[in-house]
Protein 1
Amino acid sequence: MAKKNVTDDFSLEKIAERLRSNRMDAYIASNPDSLLSIMDELISDDMTVANGGSVTLSETGVIEYLRGRRINFLDKEKARADGVEAVRNVELGAFSADAYVMSTNALTSKGWLYNVDGKGNRVAALVYGPKSVIVICGKNKLVKSVKAAHKRLKSYTAPANCERLALKTPCVRTKTCMDCSSNDRICNAYTVVRKSNIKGRIKVILLDFEAGY
Ligand code: SF4
């Protein structure tokens, strides 16, 4: 039997194959322009589209792209100006949207999506509700295993997000997880999506460049 090359674990083509064998669709974008071309294919005019909070979506221009499309965009950032109830209505609207756009905290070499939420609205929409879920994953989010994904979250992603959001959690100071009891804790709902129940409902766009935390 041919010996497995360890670099295969992180080849985007191999990960795309594994995602497809997990009943997800997979695409590879070599740059931000090709990412937006793929979005053109996946999102049609007049769709209702929602999104999960994500640095990746802002950094890659996807939020501005969605604002510029002729769609019914449930814009959570804009809803924030109208208060907590407006945000909750947008989050609930995501469950009946045609498409939900998000990034992922990590993607394992087996093609499993690892995510952690404070409130849980994003992981809930990933698992159930919107007809289609588009997951955008920077190459910096690729990890060997769920264990490695969890380690990455605790030692980097969650503290960085807490700092970005100006939350009162100890990891902002320590730069690593303290398994806190803070009311601001963002690590509450953990999910690992191993396969898409409805074939092709989850579509993963693998970026051949780094984006997000
Ligand atoms: S559990 Fe608390 S301390 Fe640990 S990363 Fe999450 S928010 Fe930070």
Note: The chain is about 35% helix and 20% strand.
Protein 2
Amino acid sequence: MKPPPFDYHCPETLDEALALLAEHGEAAKVLAGGQSLVPMLNLRAVHPEVLIDINRLPGLDHVRIEDGELRIGALARHRAVLESPAVREASPLMAAAYPYVSHGPIRNRGTLCGNLCHNDPASEMPAVALASDAEMMLQSASGARTVGAEEFFTGTLSTAAGADELLVEVRVPQAPAGQGAAFHEVSPRKGDFAYVAVGAVVSLSGGACSGARIVCAGVGDGPHRARAAEDALEGAAPGEGAFRQAAAAAADSIDPGEDFHADADYRRDLVRSLTRRALADAASRCH
Ligand SMILES: Cc1cc2nc3c(=O)[nH]c(=O)nc-3n(C[C@H](O)[C@H](O)[C@H](O)COP(=O)(O)OP(=O)(O)OC[C@H]3O[C@@H](n4cnc5c(N)ncnc54)[C@H](O)[C@@H]3O)c2cc1C
């Protein structure tokens, strides 16, 4: 199918882009990598009157560590993030999850910020952002604001970003030294969206778990943090028994939907086994 008709703007500066967003608001859509937006246009799932292509905006393709944070700009492509030594250094969880994000040609165009703004419930990076206390730097013609991941992801394909706002950068606090991370998923083919994905980070101190984050994708209308499972691990000796108990709590914490890929029981089983595996791997990577 072909997309519905739209006006196309390709601003050369951030100010110009923000002015266009202010002018057109709900009638406009930002075009970044186009790897989610273009299929949705072609399926006529969205009908923007105006597309604002941000690909010519300067200075937004960075992936760097600054002031203890990993900072990734709106035009950093998936491939640049996947291959970045800064990501491996600052966010072992993001580094572990990125190989699951889509296929080569899509990674060449798609952006991390576009992925976060799209917020597909089966997408890996919103879950990583939630586990990592990432902050979204939003900018509009009337000012800038910062929104934490907890508030940013508001539901299926929806976020707290206003129609006149651009996500200019995502900031991820650098992971504490010694923390271990792992990410696992089950999908129909490598690079496809997950049926279920689970990410875990674990910190150990004096032979006990001193902190854990467990997040899931594909189990509801956005990324899910399994807090009861995290609580179950607090102070526990890391090992098969504790990981199984936490995995059971994670499975109990979700209320997954059904679709033609997987029913709710299968998704719960996947959360249980992927959580156990992710925790064991994360703990083994603590140093
Ligand atoms: C075959 C296929 C397989 C895929 N597999 C996966 C997968 O396994 N996991 C996964 O997570 N993703 C997957 N994707 C999606 C891919 O990761 C997209 O690149 C990503 O979801 C969107 O990034 P984009 O830069 O292409 O954004 P676009 O498609 O350009 O935009 C997506 C949405 O975000 C908005 N937007 C984009 N950038 C900004 C910004 N800076 N500020 C405000 N709004 C913005 C747009 O207006 C639009 O609503 C797949 C895509 C395809 C086609």
Note: Residues 180-284 form a domain with the Enolase-like; domain 1 fold (CATH 3.30.390.50).
